[in-house]
Amino acid sequence: MSKTIADLVDFADSGAATEHYPTPEDRLVKGHPSQHNRLHFQADNCFFAGEWGGEPGCWKVKYTENEYFQILSGKSIIRDLQGRELVLTAGDQVCVPAGFEGEWEVLETTRKTYVIYEKPAQGD
Asked: Is the distance from CB of 67 to CB of 106 less than 8 angstroms?
């Protein structure tokens, strides 16, 4: 079935609700940062696009998904298990492959837009 302009999702007026949540205790490295997510689009339960934000703090990450993101504001650091790090500021665009493990540290309240592809589990 052909899609039309009415099927496009404009983040500015999508009407998506914002979910606010604490960082899970078992992932915390320091601080008690709150996070929020606004999921604007999803398809086939494996493709997602939205906006995310986080408050200062640090937590462990383990990506099962492939993610592209662009930092809109703030300053964060993404760090691998060997301690190598990438400082992220407004305008930075990054792809994180599934399998990446490390830490995400928010130094200044950060906002990003993201696109995620999560490979469907076997049998899905």
From this structure: no
